[in-house]
């Protein structure tokens, strides 16, 4: 049951953020395979380390909305998530 929840959550988040960023044109097939593979690898690694499930966060959409399209946006969001651990 948890696997299905995680698959639908990750797929919905990735599709939503990718469409918002304009990375999923209507006339081309989607390329979510690599993103879903990275997400599943992070979930397995997190499970082995005893953490809660790791996943793609929908908060990434706010970075896309603000105009972020590069890895720098992901790095800033990651640092802010890290800072939120101590708040």
From TrEMBL:
InterPro entries: Azg-like (IPR045018), NCS2 (IPR006043). The keyword Membrane applies. It is found in: Endomembrane system. GO terms for cellular component: endomembrane system; plasma membrane. It is a multi-pass membrane protein. The chain crosses the membrane at residues 70-86. GO terms for molecular function: adenine transmembrane transporter activity. Keywords: Membrane, Transmembrane, Transmembrane helix, Transport. Pfam families: Xan_ur_permease. PANTHER family: XANTHINE/URACIL PERMEASE C887.17-RELATED (PTHR43337), XANTHINE_URACIL PERMEASE C887.17-RELATED (PTHR43337:SF1). Belongs to the nucleobase:cation symporter-2 (NCS2) (TC 2.A.40) family. Azg-like subfamily. This is NCS2 family permease. The lineage of its organism: Bacteria, Pseudomonadati, Pseudomonadota, Betaproteobacteria, Burkholderiales.
């Amino acid at each position: 049951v948890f696997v299905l929840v995680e698959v639908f959550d990750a797929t919905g988040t990735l599709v939503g953020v990718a469409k918002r960023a304009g990375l999923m044109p209507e006339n081309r097939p989607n390329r979510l395979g690599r993103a879903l593979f990275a997400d599943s690898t992070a979930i397995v690694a997190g499970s082995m380390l005893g953490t809660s499930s790791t996943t793609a966060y929908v908060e990434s959409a706010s970075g896309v909305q603000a105009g972020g399209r590069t890895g720098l946006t992901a790095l800033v969001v990651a640092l802010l998530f890290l800072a939120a651990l101590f708040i």
